[in-house]
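Researcher: Structure prediction, please.
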Amino acid sequence: MDFKNRDVISVKDFSKKEINDILSYAKKMAPYAKGEKHTNILKEKILSSLFFEPSTRTRLSFESAMHRLGGSVIGFADPSATSQKKGESLADSIRMADSYSDAIVIRHPQEGAARLSAEFAESPVLNAGDGAGQHPTQCLLDLFTIITEKKKIKGNKVVLLGDLKYGRTVHSLAYALSLFGAELTFVSPQSLKMPKEVINECKDFGVEPSSTSNLEGAIKDADVLYVTRIQKERFPDAEEYNRVVGTYRVDNELLKYAKEDLIVMHPLPRVVEIDPQVDKTPHALYFKQAFNGVPVRMALLSLILGGRRI
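Model: Predicted structure follows.
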């Protein structure tokens, strides 16, 4: 399949076959991501890393991926130190980054910013999260993690927990899991329920998600528990946030209701929603999940920038 120079704005832009191809290639990238093998297939290629919003895992894993492939990275993690502070438009910032590099990865607080950026850039644009919209590369690494641990996606019972209204990771993931035939259960506070348009997309694939407020009941036969943070920065009203923060907490007492092989995932950062004691259990997969961002993003960058396949 030819991915050269393609934008990565939404997981919906890729077919099931293309997603499988990316995930298969990511598996081959794993030893390179760990530094066990070495490659320079993107030697002399430059990635612009433009983060208008805070990030740890996404930004660092993209940079690590590019360096592991032999390429270089330019960019910023603090927009206040750029000409945005002087009033430069997003379009002009993208045009400049486009002239300095071979691809652009962007995180921005405004939904739709990545797709807009792709209209102004000749180089491929990769969406690293746009507001409450999409986070396609997180979705791909989540799928990669489930396949690696469970050997398949179809038929797995997946519980999505937490902020399902503003959580861009679960919006992308619910769509992709439905595409692959997983069974979905949504658990959230009433005010943070999954948007109807996402539910309708799941139904288009023949998946009928169930919704409940009973977390104990939901995890009893679950194969995957995907936890999300209640995102204070997304709330237009601080009082609304204060009413729901801490509604659900995953701890060892709760996990007594779960199957032995349940895996607990989280896009991170976590705040209060997962007790640190869970880290010591075999259920905890979120740190391995975070590492998986490197081979997945290596695969994408290699395919998009036209490096030969390893």
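Model: Residues 11-133+292-304 form a domain with the Rossmann fold fold (CATH 3.40.50.1370).
Researcher: Thanks, that helps.
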